[in-house]
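quick one
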Amino acid sequence: MKAEDCDWYGGKVPGYTYKMGDDLDYVIREAYQLYFGENALGRSAFKSVTKLEQSIVGFCLRLFGHDGTGAGIFTSGGTESIFLAVKSAREWAKRSKPSATKPNVVMPVSAHAAFGKATYYMGIESRRVALGKDYRAHIEGLRAAIDGNTIMIIGSAPAYAHGNFDDIESLGELAGAYELWFHVDACLGGFVAPFVKRLGYPIPVFDFTVPQLTSLSADLHKYGYAPKGSSVLLYRTPEHKECAKFTFRDWPRGLYQTYTFLGSRPAGPLAGSFAAINFLGEEGYLDAARIMMSTKEKLVSGIGAIDGLRVYEPSDLIILLYDSVEPAVDINAVAEEMRKRGWFVGVVAEPVAISFPINPIHEKSVDGYLEDLRACVEVVRTSGKTAAYDEATYT
Ligand SMILES: *Cc1c(COP(=O)(O)O)cnc(C)c1O
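structure w/ pyridoxal-5'-phosphate:
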């Protein structure tokens, strides 16, 4: 069945997949299988599942600058973390801001599509505000969108489309001034940024050390290298976490209570995440960060050396965008040629540019990528080929 799939183990898929090493793969698969049949809904039956979750949440709170009085939930992915953050903000506002009878959420347009999904599912108005010229949240634009019904504001650290950090400290001040729930979406970069910072790169502040920050999402199944179905939603206090809770008694089976969207929940991702965190440890994540930053340098200089191409600046972390500055080289046609050679190529819609989310597996495929890219640009230039923007890369 996999014959026509892109070869992600060979490093041909920037995005979707994340891999650190074969030894880690082995360990997380073993851990996952140990919990293959357990149900994380059944806390009283499977006490170790609660221990796994507490251990993972504790590690993440410390990583993101919390003093230990916070709380968190292990979720099935970034989308569920975001869904629960929006749901929590709504419950919080019911008490703290009863005048907000038609709640809305204000965010930069670069906030992940999952916020659109969450607000749509919950019937909450979403206000997406244009970015500044630097492809980051436009603080004054966001301020202008806030009114008496605004309950929540969002920042990304970094955002998926352009890979840039919003100014989280300024957003925090805005949240404080209007008493808004402030969520930081670190789904993508959460397990990279703290380590890249330790390597000495300038990474802006984005975690719980920002005093107004209420909740933060970070995906273990991305740069935490855990199995798919792993993310955390972290809260400033246990009271904030209580806003995610759903309690139900109106049926013959008695009390039913969950903090997640799912009822029956796989426990394998919890075991796999625990294994990844403990097998890699901070040293392992630091190694991954080091590998990615040197791969990024290779890509930046390699792409920059190809006539007609331009790398976008700034690139804060591990997403690289590049486009064409030569009319004869159509960037969508370049993407199509690269696909013919087996590469998965994602294209950003605004600005139209090829996106390369780097992960450690690309250390071994980066030379091949640059070689093919050079050849594809030449094919497009000499043939004069053009192509339409392909929407289908993120469906
Ligand atoms: C991936 C991602 C999400 C959504 O996460 P899923 O795991 O795909 O549900 C949200 N925000 C950002 C910044 C992301 O990169």
